[in-house]
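Final report, results section. Input specification for complex C-07:
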Amino acid sequence: MANVKLSKSEENYLKSIFNLSEFGNKQVSTNSISKVLNIEPASVTDMIKKLSKKNLIYHEKYKGSTISKSGIKIALQIIRRHRLWEVFLHDKLNFKWDEIHNIAEELEHVSSEELIDNLDKFLKYPKIDPHGDPIPNKLGEIDFVDKISISDLNINEKGIVSRIINEDEEFFSLLKKLNIEIGTEVKIIDKIEYDQSLEIHIDNKSVIISKDIADNIKITKI
Amino acid sequence: MANVKLSKSEENYLKSIFNLSEFGNKQVSTNSISKVLNIEPASVTDMIKKLSKKNLIYHEKYKGSTISKSGIKIALQIIRRHRLWEVFLHDKLNFKWDEIHNIAEELEHVSSEELIDNLDKFLKYPKIDPHGDPIPNKLGEIDFVDKISISDLNINEKGIVSRIINEDEEFFSLLKKLNIEIGTEVKIIDKIEYDQSLEIHIDNKSVIISKDIADNIKITKI
DNA sequence: ATCTAAATTTAGGCTTACCTAAAAAATTTA
DNA sequence: TAAATTTTTTAGGTAAGCCTAAATTTAGAT
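Structure output:
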């Protein structure tokens, strides 16, 4: 199985399928891919056929797609590139942590293994990116630092924000408005039964965030 | 005239047309574009129409293309990106000077003005790239360091190699074989009337190079 | 269990950026 | 200057990656 060069589109699909699959453990629906990539389901079906033919995913008609071993391997390399570029943009070029995602989204498709290895070395082999996400090494090995979310804390417990899952522009501006970033200390004041939203303290100011928001913010308990 | 985002192909055509035009002063033939880009003339005609419609070049049927003011402006920005990435690859990631061209060829199409400006700052605003080519600044201003070529030297004169014009892989390996790089001292031993090839000394060893090769190696006279 | 709604696929179309073959224009040569 | 050659353009075609509309399959509600 020669390591065929993938197009930018193919790489983006593969990355999304991998992310939706929870490390290859779950079948991924055509609709969910359509949603994260903002591409019509019919087009997704086209690409699924293409990736299946290359044995990067397995597809069962009308059921969903599963990413293959070789698909996972490639996806991890794309994620590695993305996160290394994010470290570069943040640490070396002084971009803010909420400005780096879109640029890294382009840089990750520049395909030179030597480039990435040299970049890795230049950055001193970082383990996590500026959003707190772990960076796979050259072999695709990755630290599973899947921390607990804000919503897993009980009332009066505290945590330090360590990782932001959702990388959408809107989510970043929301966090900015809430004064939340990596390293911010949060304390749970109340859990609202009705919709499971949470009242939390940030800088001693009280705000209420939805369960969905809380789920997207991983923390280290303190 | 809004600054419309160009595709990778459009950028490559524009850059080539600019390079062939000698800073916008010469009309460029369809065939010459075809040759440097390795794309059939018929396809070049297609793209010429596209770029003309965007007023980046002017085209006179069966005569040739001239790059416009706004075309030059964009071409200089693409060249700026290319050369800044080359400096980064060479100075920071420790790539050899003959390995950087192809990677920079991809990186130059990542379109973020802020990225390039921050990269420029990170690299301390370099004036030349590792091949000795001048780097346009943010405004497109560029030092005209168009030095003389080896072939302009007379017998017994010496020079320091300052700039390599041809950036093809083969040309680099030829230079490697000849032990020529930026900074190498060369001395003219003889000029051969027959085909204007030159006998030169490098590290006190004598070699004969064709006029074409000599023209592609710029030097500073010493 | 059937009927409906949602998810998925198929069919047919479009644009970009390329191609080949053939026609047209310009240039060179005799 | 007319014929031959070269250059350029036109015409028609292809693959990738998207689209919409319609058909098909699956899942959910009653």
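The mean pLDDT of chain A is 92. The helical segments of chain A are 8-20, 30-37, 41-53, 69-92, 100-107, 113-122, 169-178, 211-215. This concludes the modelling results for the funded period.
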